Every structure is written in structure tokens, then in C-alpha cells.
Amino acid sequence: METQSTRWQVVGLIGGIFLLALWLSSPLWAQPTQMLREYGTARYQGEYEGTLYCLRHDFSQDKKDHEICTKEGRHRHVLAMKDGHVHPLYGDNEELNNVINSSDMNAKKVHITGKYYTTTNAILVGSLKVVE
Hints:
This protein is an alpha+beta fold. The protein has two domains: 1-29; 31-130, CATH 2.40.50. The chain contains six helices and five strands; from the N terminus they run αααβααββαββ. It is globular and about 50 Å long.
């Protein structure tokens, strides 16, 4: 019984550290597309596959964040890859940005072509295709 309780404490601690790191890095995730282009150089031009998840209702435990997604439909999707990496996404133009962050794209598997920026861990998306 003691071992199971300890495991849950460790899981809770790791989850808390992840959420703290996500909250502290939020200024990096909120960078506008133009700033991303000018902030250093892209390290890799490539193709990426993964699943889009909403930062507010898939990652956040705050009830207000869930309400924002439900009522206002304002999503901010990130790409979660099979290897565990999570990347903030920015569309190369406003239309693509709207497609990436639309409510229809939540939990969709996608194939993305874009530029990866190592400094911010972000991907500037040039094209996006739903895989499913």
C-alpha cells in the first residue's frame, strides 16, 4: 500500500513540474510569426508528423482555460510527436495560422512541412495536411 501511494506522489510531482515549465515558457510560445522569422535562423527545414493538441483544454488544468475553449473556441494547438517532443506551431500566413488553431483540428494527426527553430522549439508551418 505504501508503494502505490509513493508512485502517485511521484507522478503528481512530475506533472506539477511539467505544468510549471509550460507556464514559465509561455512567453516563448506566444511569439508572433514575424518575430519568429527574425529571431535567429531556422535550424532545419523538414517534415514533421504528430497530433495537434490544444494547450488550454488538453494540457491546462485551469477551469477558466477550458471555458475559453468551449465558449469562445479560441484554441492554441501544439504538435505532439510520437517521440514525446511538443512543438508550438506558427502558420507562415494568417490563413494557415487560423487553420492550425481551429477547433476542427483538435486531436487530428497531421503531416507538416516547415522550418524548425531550435532556440524556441517552434515550427514555422509552410503546409499542413491531415493524415487520418
